[in-house]
Amino acid sequence: MSDLLVLRQEPLGDGPGSVTLALTGAFARARDALEARRPVVVVVAAGDLLGQGDPLDAAVATGLLGMVRTLAIEGAKPGWRINVVAAPGVAEAGGREGLGVASVDEAADEEDPVALTIAMLAESELTGQLLQVGGANLGKLPA
Amino acid sequence: MSAAIVTGAAGGLGGRIGERLAAAGHQLVLVDLDPKVEEVAAAQGARGVVADLTRPEGVEAVVEAAGAEVGVLVNNAGITRDARATKMTEEDFAAVIAINLTAAIRLTLALEQRFVEGGSVVNMSSRASLGNFGQANYSASKAGLVGFGRALAQRWAPRVRVNAVAPSLVDTPMTQAMPPAVLRKLVAKIPAGRIGTPDDVAGVVAFLASPDAAYITGQVIYACGGRTVAP
Question: Is the pLDDT confidence value at A94 over 50?
């Protein structure tokens, strides 16, 4: 489980250019981990998938989801595992550094529903999926 | 009369979108990095702007050309740099995001005050936003446009509507350059049984820009011949 890479979306604040940096950085880290056969979980703010916050954060959140789905398609044969967890409130929790990286042990220590979902994915064969934690956006658009 | 701005207008799809908006009575501003846009604009009686939208001066040139009032913005400019993720360089990933997504964001935000009487923004997304082999960069850029549009639709409501169109294969010089066997295989996956035409997509854009779509905002219309639901 310890080889899981967790990429967490953090709020952006430095203008549109930060969107390019955040997505490109996430791609590089996710691709490197997948090539090393490490599973990847990308954690985004559930509200950002629906555009309920800042437009740049929303662009990053949905951009990450699109990227993950393509990586999952390309990695189906070699067995890559990459998924997205949509967590409530992530956007309010972070700094302005772009995507942070956490180890699964760090995440699991939190013992919250998001951490438990991440831990489940570390042991799962699921790939290319979006798991929404909490019911805040039930009945809304599929992301 | 308010302006309708179309980016990526030197290409077949952008040019056709311009024609449809002109037919609806809009005063066109056609934008592209390719100087050919000036010919396209001249043929339509429109204003052509050669601009690199990844640079601040390019965005400023479009804002200036737009005049005092903008009614429609179509963010259509885009590129591809396809490769499997294992072969894709970070430079190619970043270039696609910068042009397809970040430049569109910059231009849209720069035009906020020009939507004096309200208006409509149409972002050109893609079915590939749902995932597509060899297009991690393109998928991210086109999915990012969806999220950006959803947020802006809520932030700018009710004054300005923001929506996206997501085509699949469209008959453009890019798809015409594909090996015929590959193209046939891809078309076989489209329930409509044919490749999309620029008009198929331009018609949806024109609809979203029109008063007929006055109650539609924050949405994505997949103009893909049913590809999103086929195996």
Answer: no
Q: What are the tens digits of pLDDT across the range A105-131?
A: 555 555 688 889 999 999 999 999 999
Q: Which chain A residues have a beta carbon less than 8 Å from that of B111?
A: none
CB–CB of B86 and A31 under 8 A? yes
Residues of A with CB under 8 A from a CB of B: 16-17, 19-20, 23-24, 27-28, 31, 34-35, 48-67, 69-75, 128
Three-state DSSP at B27 gives strand
* pLDDT attached to residue A135: 80
Q: Report how far residue A130's alpha carbon sits from residue A142's, in angstroms, rounded to the nearest whole number.
A: 10
CA distance A140 to B223: 21
Query: Which of A31, A53, A70 comes nearest B151 by C-beta?
Result: A53
Tens digits of per-residue pLDDT, A39-77? 999 999 999 999 999 999 999 999 999 999 999 999 999
Supply B74's token pair: 């179509």
Which residue of chain B has the CA closest to A46?
B147
- Tokens standing for A30? 């996710």
- Are B97 and A19 a contacting pair at CB < 8 A? yes
Cβ of B147 within 8 Å of Cβ of A49? The answer is: yes
Is B138 known to be catalytic? yes
The model's confidence at residue A93, banded by pLDDT at 50, 70 and 90, is: very low
Residue B76 has pLDDT above 90, yes or no: yes
Measured between CA atoms, how close is B53 to chain A, in angstroms? 12
Sheet holding B160-165, edge to edge: B47-50, B27-32, B3-7, B70-75, B119-124, B160-165, B220-221
Nearest to B128 by CA among B82, B193, B179: B82
